[in-house]
Amino acid sequence: MVLKKLKSTSFLYFSDEFLIMEFKKIIEEKSKESWEIYIPNLSIDCVVFGYHNASLKILTVKMKENNLWALPGGYVLKTENIKEAANRILQQRTGAENIYLQQFRVFSDLNRSEGFFSEFDDTIWNKQRFLSIGFYALVDYSKVNLVVDSFSDACEWKDIEDLPQLMMDHGIIFEKGLSTLRKQLNYKPIGLNLLPEKFTMPELQKLYEIILGKKLNRGNFFRKMLRYDILVKLDESRKGGAHKSPDLYMYDTEKYQAALRNGLNEGW
Amino acid sequence: MVLKKLKSTSFLYFSDEFLIMEFKKIIEEKSKESWEIYIPNLSIDCVVFGYHNASLKILTVKMKENNLWALPGGYVLKTENIKEAANRILQQRTGAENIYLQQFRVFSDLNRSEGFFSEFDDTIWNKQRFLSIGFYALVDYSKVNLVVDSFSDACEWKDIEDLPQLMMDHGIIFEKGLSTLRKQLNYKPIGLNLLPEKFTMPELQKLYEIILGKKLNRGNFFRKMLRYDILVKLDESRKGGAHKSPDLYMYDTEKYQAALRNGLNEGW
DNA sequence: TATTATTGCTTCATATTGAAGCAATAAGTA
DNA sequence: TACTTATTGCTTCAATATGAAGCAATAATA
Predict the structure, then answer these.
(1) Protein footprint on strand C: which nucleotides are under 7 Å from a CB?
(2) What is the pLDDT of residues A220-264, one digit of tens each?
(3) Of A86, A222, A59, A68, whose CA–CA distance to A141 is shortest?
């Protein structure tokens, strides 16, 4: 309800000066409301991974206040837990349902924020110290419809190999999110939320290679992947490309979920 | 400073009724102060592991308010980051320096707290909703001097095989801390903070077995551990026990730290 | 129909793991 | 003092997993 009101306000068109006044008023009003509905001093930032054109992307948002790129984020309502909060934030942003979410770390350095909103009163919500809970999310790129809200000018997928400078410590949050994802590749399956329902072995391998940032041996990948016993080979193959048509697979959802719970490699 | 004042107050001896009055006053005063110095709605709970007599223990605290056992915890000062907070909390509790600390998860369910402090006003600090950051800590059991503070009656090591009922969701926090530690055993070395400086191979194996909750093959453990190349074999052995004296080892601190950073098993 | 790059899957050498066992040893015991 | 015993250090052998390479099948294109 509240978001809608603000969203519509932000679409008004006036002279620059008036726009600035308007923006200030929005911030101040929004601030008052934030103090009422959110847990103070706590934010959520999300590293949202999507896979498209054989490259890994993350969602970024361009902030109005400072014209910098940021990770999509928000706050925790007084009436929800943090996973619900992350879900709500991302659903508003992407429209996607069924987002795979994993919290990975709290970022709490005293100098995380960078003195934005200096023209505002110290009591304004946005000027508070925020400790941020980092989530990473895996979403189906094709099912996402990006939404721009009242704080942001733009919302775009960026290739992780070609990221713009991110504001505050969002670069660090991204790095930590990616490295967590990488580690989890060693004992959890991945792909159910990143790939389309049907996919080929080379496509799956490419996903692994991009996350890990290195080439893998084809035959060995194939063998290991099959041994995990979470794939179902379909009676179709992907036609249309040059050369031999690769077989299509999908995940055995039961076994995939079981592998998620129990882990793939014992270790000890 | 503040803590000292409270600590001394809590040692006064009066009639029961007077004591209750006194306790209420302490809580109210402490509440006012907490609102001033701490980040609201945010707490820290620590699963502090110590190793003694071939068994793994965690630190528990008995709360005055409800007579229940709890994990040691506290709040985050407005002037510190969460690791500093966890360090401060544990240093006050244990006197230990150089504590290995690892945050592992935020616990944020709406019904985490259990309606304690019902006789107090709703504005009291302790009645707020708290999201808690879980840390696990590895400490040298022999170097710890437990401290009882104004909120607690007792502070004791408890064997993880024989834990009392823990208040709120502290049982879940413990479980998650232990399972995180277990997972980390697969790609990180452990022991530098749990074992004495010099230790034997059977002692190290016992530590692994207790954390993992299962027996390991002796010869294979020996072989794998040596291949990690983080141990230094000393020219001494542990005399005094019956049977063959086991060789003493210590960690090569350089290599141990490097292994902590880089991980022990590649995976992919 | 031949060419070509890609794919499915196997093979062989090498490394790692699981299970077992043997010799050395240090107390306790005869 | 020699024997007994359980533990320890470390090796061996079989089973399994991994790394590297390669061969046959295939599908578009020439």
Answers:
(1) 4-11, 17-21, 24-28
(2) 999 999 999 999 999 999 988 889 999 999 999 999 999 999 999
(3) A59
